[in-house]
Write a structure and sequence with these properties.
This protein has a single domain, classed as 3-Layer(aba) Sandwich (Rossmann fold), CATH 3.40.50. It contains four helices and seven strands, in the order E-H-E-H-E-E-H-E-E-E-H. The chain has helices spanning about 10-25, 40-50, 85-90, 140-155; strands at about 1-10, 30-35, 65-70, 75-80, 105, 120-130, 130-140. Strands 1-7-6-2-5-4-3 form a seven-stranded mixed beta sheet, covered by helices on one side. The radius of gyration is 14 Å and the shape is globular. The model has no long low-confidence stretch (mean pLDDT about 85).
Amino acid sequence: MESLKLNSYSPEQTQLLGSYLGKLAQVGDIFLLTGDLGTGKTCLIQGIAHGLGIEEYAFSPSFVIIREYRGRLPLYHIDFYRLDRIEEITDLGLEEYFYQDGVVVMEWADRWPEILPEWKLKVGFVIIDNSFRKITLSGNHYRAVEILKALEVKLWR
């Protein structure tokens, strides 16, 4: 599995990383976000929206489960936080978004990994001493590896 480990010292740095992801995003890309409350998942999504050319402010869909935004590509922002059973995902048809014409970003994706497709990029967040976040991006599908390599070039030049 390929991975890239980064530190973010501010919400703006996390949003910038998201913006890079949004600019790299292609139809069918799926970003799975994991981490505790307040670790920066929504900041990353705000950046992804910006990178996709979405002008609308991206809010967390915790209470509505999914938000859709329109930009260069549609962004489907799904949040599993309030779902208690895997049947709720299938009843709501959420897995259908994996096969749409846009980009899927899913918060709390680690709750039901068995329904997630293999062509995903995982993004894990951990708060370190309340002073910064450690962000680990990983995946083994060819598309995830492409994104990781492109990010490395962007971040280290």
